[in-house]
Amino acid sequence: xxxxxxxxxxxxxxxxxxxxxxxxxxxxxxxxxxxxxxxxxxxxxxxxxxxxxxxxxxxxxxxxxxxxxxxxxxxxxxxxxxxxxxxxxxxxxxxxxxxxxxxxxxxxxxxxxxxxxxxxxxxxxxxxxxxxxxxxxxxxxxxxxxxxxxxxxxxxxxxxxxxxxxxxxxxxxxxxxxxxxxxxxxxxxxxxxxxxxxxxxxxxxxxxxxxxxxxxx
Length: 217
Ligand code: E4P
Description:
The protein has helices at residues 10-19, 29-34, 40-53, 67-78, 92-103, 116-124, 134-139, 144-158, 172-181, 190-194, 200-215; strands at 2-6, 24-26, 57-61, 84-89, 108-113, 129-132, 163-166, 185-188. It has 217 residues and is an alpha/beta fold.
């Protein structure tokens, strides 16, 4: 399973990259705003900076909600760097734009997916990635992981090449469960990735090894 980090924070991206397990980055307009990145030029420069920090795919989300606007914005974003994946909302014009970009060989990530039907449409439109938001489903007392499981079944039934990018991952157990269910990618915060490191028996075992070493030296 690929690990993407879901942030526009350059320090956190650097930290995940330094761990050696990072395969890409996802961003969205809210994450950009959280870092104080506003205005078209600053946003473009920020995408360029992110691409310099990582080797993998970097999702850059369009703001337009009409086909022509999405095509114009997406083409400009894709021209920044071959790592850029054009992130499109799961709306009618987003699906049309996805088909447009996939037929031109431009990578896409269809975002704000909350049902199997939406994931099916994204795959039919040739999306590179589909982003089911599991945390936001959990937030409304609906089983987000079940959606990942169902999309996996449908995609496997027809050998769709669209990769399931489990999004809105909030914690380490989400990461582990996405891996169990066969999600191709997960995107989450640095804390969810670093949480995988933690086990109390690792800490106590290491403390004992070091203490025993000290006794003999
Ligand atoms: C997906 O690409 C989104 O950026 C993100 O995962 C949303 O996560 P949230 O629900 O924690 O805001």
